[in-house]
Every structure is written in C-alpha cells, then in structure tokens.
Design goal:
Blueprint: H1 4-17, H2 23-30, H3 34-40, H4 44-64, H5 73-84, H6 89-92, H7 98-101, H8 104-127, H9 136-155, H10 161-176, H11 185-193
Helix pairs in contact: 1-2, 1-4, 4-8, 5-8, 5-10, 8-9, 9-10
Length: 194
C-alpha cells in the first residue's frame, strides 16, 4: 500500500540530485503511479511544500531525542550534528526551491530552529567551549553552513557518509572554540626565535 511518507522520501532523494525531476520520475521512485501521487499531492508545489515542512518535523524529532540534561552544550551539539547530517537528502533540495523558503509556515519553523541553535550556542559560550567573542549569529550561520557542506560532500563522494558528521563537528569546534588567553601562537613563535 503506497504511503504519503514513501512518496515524500522518494521526492527528497530525487529532488536533492535533480531539482527539475518530473512528477512521473518521483512517482516511479516511490513505486506508485502518477494518479496515486496526485491523490496525496494535487500539485508538484504541494508536494515540495509538504516535503519542506516534513523535513523541519524530522529535524525537530531528531533533536528532541537529545538528552540535554545529561550533556554539556558541546556534547549536545555533537549529538545534534550526528543526527542531522544523515538527513541531508531531506534538506539539500531546498537550495533549488526558493519559493518554499519564503513560505510563511516553513519560514517560521526554520527561524524557530535557528533560535534554538542560538540558545545552544549561548550555552556553549557560557560553559567556555565557544569563544565569547564570536557573535551568536555568526556561529549559527557557520554551524548551519557546515552541516550543509557535510550533506553535499557526502553526495558528491568527497567525504564518506560515516565520517561527515565528525568532520563537520570538528570544524565547528576548532573554528569556534574559546581561544587561549595571552599571546597568540604567532607571537609565541616570535618570542622563541628572538
């Protein structure tokens, strides 16, 4: 029995690689006829919008599984990245669907998720695992960009799927971590050679 979720999964997988994919191609990937697909989604735009909202729901469900009480903020971010990176197909297609990015419901959900990430960034600053001097907005944008980079790198084969989350997290932490106080490393090097 065909399901709405099977169609959404097929649409995400195809549209991530071929933004211009036809309804017929998506239906074939889902193992249903076009008539069945249209019963669930009257237009291609309905399907794309539903896929975008379902992607936000999947991120919400994945991040709710993280037990923040038993983890530091840095550990929580590591868990979130590990959970979100495998969901790449569900989000990469959005880069080619600007109309969906402006959909009020999608925009509100996306902004809420960015605010939740900003709260986590603030918690990392408070515990000392992120540099206070890094603006929260910049940290959020960087984290989101690195997750996207992990998705695309897995897709183009330049990074193994099993390594992508760890590489993205390592880059986040090494690039955003609190810096040692005192002379910079280049100043320390100059002192040694003087």
């Amino acid at each position: 029995m065909p399901s709405r979720q099977n169609i959404l999964n097929a649409a995400g997988a195809i549209l991530a690689r071929n933004p211009g994919a036809s309804v017929a191609e998506i239906a074939a990937k889902a193992g249903v006829g076009r008539a069945t697909l249209y019963r669930f989604f009257p237009t291609r735009n309905d399907m794309v919008r539903t896929l975008a909202l379902d992607s936000l729901r999947q991120i919400d469900e994945a991040t709710q599984a993280v037990s923040y009480e038993s983890l530091t903020a840095e550990q929580a971010l590591a868990q979130i990245v590990k959970i979100i990176v495998p969901l790449g197909d569900r989000f990469r297609f959005l880069a080619n669907e600007p109309a969906v990015l402006n959909d009020p419901e999608f925009k509100a959900g996306s902004e809420r998720q960015s605010l939740e990430l900003a709260e986590l960034v603030e918690a990392m600053k408070a515990e000392g695992s992120m540099d206070q001097a890094v603006s929260t907005a910049w940290a959020v944008a960087t984290i989101e960009a690195l997750i996207y980079a992990a998705w695309t790198s897995v897709d183009d084969g330049s990074v193994a799927r099993r390594d992508a989350a760890a590489l993205a997290f390592r880059t986040m932490i090494k690039g955003l971590q609190a810096q040692e106080s005192g002379p910079t490393s280049s100043a320390k090097t100059r002192e040694k050679t003087a």
